[in-house]
Every structure is written in C-alpha cells, then in structure tokens.
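To whoever is on call:

I kicked off a structure prediction for a single chain this morning and the downstream step that reads the tokens threw a length-mismatch warning. I double-checked the sequence; it's 563 residues and nothing unusual in it as far as I can see. Pasting both halves so you can look.
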Amino acid sequence: MTDKLIIFDTTLRDGEQSPGVTLNTDEKVEIARQLARLGVDVIEAGFPVASPGDFNAVQRIAREVGSSMEGRTGEGRVNEPAIICGLARSVEKDIRTAFDAIKDAPRHRIHVFLATSDIHLEFKLKISREQCKERIREMVGLAKSLCADIEFSPEDAGRSDREFLAEALSVAVAAGATTLNIPDTVGYNTPLEYGSLIKYLREHTPGADQVVWSTHCHNDLGLATANSLAGVSNGARQVEVAVNGIGERAGNTALEEIVMNVHTHPHAYPVHHTINTRLLFSTSRMVEDLSGMTVQANKAIVGRNAFLHESGIHQDGVLKNKQTYEIIRPEDVGVTTGNLALGKHSGRHAIKTKLEELGYGGSALSDAQFQQAFVKFKDLADSKKAGVTDGDMHALVADVRSSTLGGSGTSATPEASAAPVTSPTSTELPEDAHDLVDPVTQRFALRHMQVFTGVGITPTATVTLHDAQRGEDLTDAALAKNGPIEAIYSVIQRITGLDIDLLNFNVSATSEGQDTLGKVAVRIASRTSSPPDAEGSLTSYGAQPKFTGLATNVDIITASANA
C-alpha cells in the first residue's frame, strides 16, 4: 500500500496574494466549501492577523466548513473533515490571533513561518542565525501550547544554508512541530536541487521521522509542479498547492497538476491521493470566476484547449481510439462528453442532471441559486438557435454566484486595510467577529438601457438603474469618445455618484456561433479611496481595495453594464 499524499490547498491564502485577485468573505467561504467537497486534506484559509476581514473569513470557514463531510465519505475518499489552517509569522500576536480564528474547527492547524536564508536574516529580519533558532523555539513552542497540529516553514529554504537549515528544523521539531514545510519561496530551485534538498534534510534533521515533510514551490521558472513531484519522490508526503496555480508573482504549484500526475502515474510515485478528480474542472471555473484570474487556454488539465485536437492526424487518431492522443479521459477531471442536449423545452430535472454532471451537485448550489440559474437558462434557450452548451451552463452558474455572493471585493474592507501590524487580539475580535462585517447587498439594478453608436458618431448611453435603498428608478445619460462601453460606465458612475478606475475588462464567448453567450468580467477600484498608512500596516493584497463583477448575456453590452 502506498503512502497517503496530503493535499494542502493555499488558494485562499497564497493564491489570494496574486496581483489583482480579490475575494470577499462570502466568496472565500464558498471556495472553501468546494475545496472540502473536492477532498482537500488541509485548507489554509488565510492570514488572520492581516486584517479583521481576513480574521472574519478564516473564522467563518472554521465554523461553517470545518465539520463538513459532504463528498468526503466512501471508498477512495478521505473520510474525515478537512483541517482548517491559519498562517502566522513568528510573532506572538500573529499566533494567538491565528488560533482564535481556527479553534472552532474540529481539526485545526497553526502554520508558523520564519525566514532562514542569510539574505533574509541580514536584510529583512536583521537577526543572527542563533537568534533565528531561538525565535523558532519560542514561537513554535507557543503555537504548540495552543494547538496540537503545528506546521513550521523556513521561508526561502531553497536558498538557505543546508546545515543551518537542518539545525533550525530540528529546533522546530523539538518545540512541537508536526509538519515541516520546505518552501522554494522565489522559485529558484531545479527539480534535481529541490529533490536532493528534501532528501538531505530528511537524512540530517534530528527527529525527521517524527514529522510529515511538505513541499511549497513557486513557479517563477515554470518548475513548481516538477519541483514538488521531485520532493514527493524524495520523501515529502504533503504538497502545498493552489487551484489553477494562482499565487504570488508567477504562482504556486497547481493542485490539478499534482493530483493528475499522481493519478496518471500510480507506479511512478510512492503515494496515492483521495481527491475527487471529477470536480477539478468545476472547481477551477469557480476560482477563475470569483478571483478574476483567467485560466490560459492551454493550461494543463483545466485549460479550454486541454482536450481539443486541431491537427488532422490527431483528430483521425482520436476518432479511431481516444487513447492515441489522450492520456487523461476528459470526464475524469469533470469535462463532460455526455449526450444530454439542452434547449428551451428542457425542464428542471434535466437542468439539475446537467449541473450535477458538470460538478454542481449536492449543495454546490442552493435552491435559490438553482432557481435563478433555471430562469437564466430559459431566457438563454429562448434566444439561442443552437442548444445551450456546457460552456454556457458554467457561465450561468458563475453569473448566479457573482450576483448572490454579495459582489467581489477584497477580504480586507477599506477600514480593515488600515489595521495596524499589532493586530486585533482575541479580546479585540470577539468570538462572534463574523457578525461584525455585514454582507454586501446589491443596491443598484439595471432596469433600462439605450445605446447609440456607430462609425463617425459620438457614442451615447441612456441608463435607468433601480436604487433599492431609495426605492426609486434613476435615469441619466452620458457621451463618450471611446465607444459605447465607456458611455455606459460613465453614466453608471453619474447615477451612483462613484468615481472609479476600470482596472481590467475582459469579455469572452462561452461557445461558438453568433448567438453565443458572452461573459464579461470587470475589476474596479475607487479613485477617492485613500490608501492606508504604510507605517505599521499589514495588507498583503495591496493598499487599494479592488472589486470584481461578472455577468453574462447574449448581448455583451448588456453584460458589460450588469458586470
């Protein structure tokens, strides 16, 4: 029997540190639920000390997802709840705040880190090697006094002196660490180097046999997955990953790539996983839509082109036998090949069956969300000559989630972003801290819109929005030099009284044909928000709060306005 490979997902922590990624608390909880259904062993829910918003999100995940067993029982499944993990620097208030956030989960972990490379010790921390080891002893010991499951990471391990690194790790083991994670923080190592580092540390760290060894690799040189697998081949039994590989700079090791490598090569790696691979594609789409990070078309496993064949030779081979050019069956990762055609005569049962086929079964959608998706489906089916495609269905689900999760904003609210480094302790953030942040409700809704544009014509837009707060319809108009979208966004700003920057605008088709559904994603920031004081602030995700909106419509101008 092979060893169990622990899948440690950091989408909600390191993944959210991707430039431009913005998730509000509801969206984080929704992603955490999906990760639990997927079968992830450890969910790193966030960095609780960073802000009240982050604390709130981690605490809600611990309470609402920590005991979930949906999709986790049966043969080949993990058969226990996910461990909910919070990150902490080697600082007492970080560690105590992390524990306060995660303690309500039945299984919880504190992840403590401290840099060990000479360049970090000298220039960032300004401490000696001996001081580094003493801090590890104190802070891992403190974490152990609060929580039985402790992970320690020596930041920038890939560039640390090996002998000193082994010494530092032995101190962490003696202080109570149960998992030792070896980060290639800047993506510098090659697979040969990283694999040999894991092997060396396992052979030269006193107490190595008492802990789980873990990998955490960044993709700066495109080697994150290869390095992680090299670590597994040399004794690592936990891999830290993110859905779609999102993360700092060039990203993290992609969850789907690690899982499918192990799945496809059961004899090459001495491990097995308990992930439900059929949920990989729908999980990827959820993270893509809620984070605003578009998956490249040729991305391994979950990219749009992953199972498409353009070459005539390849097409001929696949038609004769799919195994000629497909090493993974599309359905194994949730890319459907079913024959259930959907059209305007399809009923609720057919829609529910298709959604389950696409990975949205169980509690993935609430009854209200399913009803909203059904109404949108009927509207789309009436307007399309061709049938509704799987791509259309994924887009409809994304639209419904975007509108029912309260809008996409950074987890740290503008007020939270100014939280000082001396983060709120358990006395400042009471047990019911999740009640302190009100869910965002949609104030404005698009009622009517008329756009006039053309070649040699100044674009104009007239828009009517319903203001739920005031209970009335508001109408205004605007001109623009650069097309109808600018005109629409200008008039929306006039009506709402907001002054915003459009940071990103993305429009894509969900299938082929002139009547295909258009999906528009926008990212905005307020021009009037003042950035928090840099002195003493700890905001990993950027000083300026950003917000993401997503909408679908066969008319991309309407979709743009709704987004």
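Update from on-call: the warning came from a stale cache, not from the record. Cleared it. Sanity check on the structure: The longest strand covers residues 444-454.
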